[in-house]
TrEMBL record:
Residues 208-231 form the Ice-binding protein C-terminal domain. Residues 1-21 form the signal peptide. It comes from the Bacteria. Pfam families: PEP-CTERM. This is PEP-CTERM protein-sorting domain-containing protein. NCBIfam families: PEP_CTERM. InterPro entries: Ice-binding_C (IPR013424). Keywords: Signal.
């Protein structure tokens, strides 16, 4: 895990913003280029970013939130609808540590910057559930503070970890990079009292999304497999 992110996690151990019992839906002020954002990488595109600006008491923008999704290494580029939904292919990436530790062929990337970045606390919500309209309370969440940016893959092991007061994993088994479905993400700013100030949110549609009945049957099948595994 990025050393800056670890420091931010430790700095926000006492922060506990509440997740909502409602689906995460696309949310942003503008969708386009976030100048200066590198997402702690090289060659990561910054021209299709869901951008939210939080005003400063001194005028202008105090904090900028950014969320995007992009291909991992040389996998097929993602497309988008210009309204916060990205489109990716299912499958397992072939660059280490994948496929031994299966990563998706795409990453999600996030950004917090601005003169007032230290005035707020933040949570990054991420999704392992391939079903539609996953409630925010079912997402994994990581508490952060200050300016930061990075690009992660849902296959990264630490995203399936639970550290009380710092991060919790999604309420849905393990991430499967081969599963078609929809995965939602949100980057949320909170004031010092824990009230939400603003957010940026996106969705990534992977492959052909099954109809709701099919999703329900898949869910029952997975539940059965989990039950069998626990009995074994």
């Amino acid at each position: 895990m990025n050393r800056t992110i670890i420091s931010s996690l430790l700095a926000t151990a006492l922060f506990a913003g509440n997740a909502l019992a409602a689906p995460i839906t696309q949310s942003f002020d503008t969708f386009g280029t976030l100048s200066g954002a590198t997402f702690s990488g090289s060659g990561i595109p910054n021209n299709a970013v869901a951008i939210t600006n939080i005003g400063s008491s001194a005028g202008g923008t105090g904090v900028t939130l950014g969320l995007t999704a992009h291909q991992r290494y040389f996998n097929p580029e993602l497309t988008n609808d210009g309204a916060g939904t990205f489109f990716a292919n299912p499958g397992v990436d072939t660059h280490a540590p994948s496929p031994a530790n299966p990563y998706a062929t795409w990453n999600f990337a996030f950004y917090v910057g601005g003169a007032d970045a230290d005035s707020y606390n933040y949570k990054l919500f991420y999704d392992f559930d391939f079903g539609l309209n996953t409630e925010e309370s079912e997402h994994g969440q990581i508490s952060l503070s200050g300016s930061f940016q990075d690009s992660w893959n849902l296959g990264m092991d630490f995203l399936d970890s639970d550290i009380p007061g710092l991060m919790s994993s999604p309420n849905f088994g393990a991430f499967n990079p081969g599963s078609p479905g929809e995965y939602s993400f949100a980057l949320v700013a909170y004031d010092t009292q824990g009230a939400e100030v603003d957010r940026s949110a996106i969705a990534v549609q992977v492959g052909q999304i099954p109809e709701p009945v099919t999703l329900a049957l898949l869910g029952l099948g997975l539940a059965g497999l989990i039950g069998v595994r626990r009995k074994a």
